[in-house]
Amino acid sequence: MKVLITGGSGFIGSRLALHFLMRGEQVKIISQSNSRIEADNLRELSAMGADVAMGSVTDRDFIFRTVAGADIVFHLAAAQHEANAPDALFWNVNVTGTQHMLDASVANGVKRFIHGSTIGVYGKMEGVLDENSPCSPANIYGITKLEGERLVLSYREKIPISVIRISETYGPGDYRLLKLFKVIGKGVFFMIGSGGNLHHPVYIDDLINGFYLIMSNRNAIGKIFILAGPKPFTSNEMVSIIASEMNTRIPMFKAPVLPFNFAAAIIEDLSKVFHFNPPLHRRRLDFFKTSYQFLQTKAGTLLMYSPKIEFNEGVKNSLSWYRNKKLIPM
Predict the structure, then answer these.
(1) Assigned CATH for 2-174+201-230+293-308
(2) Domain residue spans of the chain
(3) What single-letter DSSP state applies at residue 119?
(4) Would you tell me how many other CB atoms lie within 10 Å of the CB of residue 135?
(5) Among 154, 174, 297, 156, residue whose Cα is nearest residue 227
(6) Contact between residue 115 and residue 98 where contact means Cβ atoms under 8 Å apart
């Protein structure tokens, strides 16, 4: 089987590629190398035997050439955290780039097209959410990812497609949650807001298992699925579990959200004028504000998806990986 993965230098894409390489499958990656982390991931994958094609999903001719020969496509490339990027970048990558991938996949006879979306399409929706809950994205990333979903679904008569709304993902290879581990380990973390908002994180191995189930099950064709972990946690609970594993204590002090939100807005405006990466921005504050919990009956019933890794075990595995990589001191 020939597997093609876009966004292969990212956390999820690189771990998915390693999974298929270890299974003995042929893996091709479409990727860019915009950071040291991405470059390291690409070197690891190349050493494992992946075929790396450097380029952008916005380059239609490149995409048509590169998709040729693929049996399965996992489309994970996205504009997501780019600071000071114009809205046009998000539309070009997340929508137009997705159309290029779909057209190339149809033209080349791809057997399955699996599209990586995000729980960000729900925006600030509260309560227990499922695939039928209304979507109300709160930023350009969520808006363009929802539009990408609609585009993928419009191709379901042309090619077998599936859409995955991916929850917050963590585990070995993840550098986003590393920042939280570091500040907790240094004893300088403090909660912004009450800490009562909910997260529903999924461990990387559980997510990859969900990808595999969707790829191999005809019940998944033409459908949207949420993939999250076993259960939700409050910010307070998440931080407490990490601190316990690192043998550190969390200060009781909690800062109000409003001043940080105001400061983030000012910093974002200044960064656009003076062209620097904002150290604080409103989307980063979503960790302390947005609350998500998901009902996964659809994935469980149709795919037998059952995430196994509890958050405390996932934290232990992540911390071990960070320490082995010398990203966090022993």
Answers:
(1) 3.40.50.720
(2) 2-174+201-230+293-308
(3) G
(4) 18
(5) 297
(6) yes
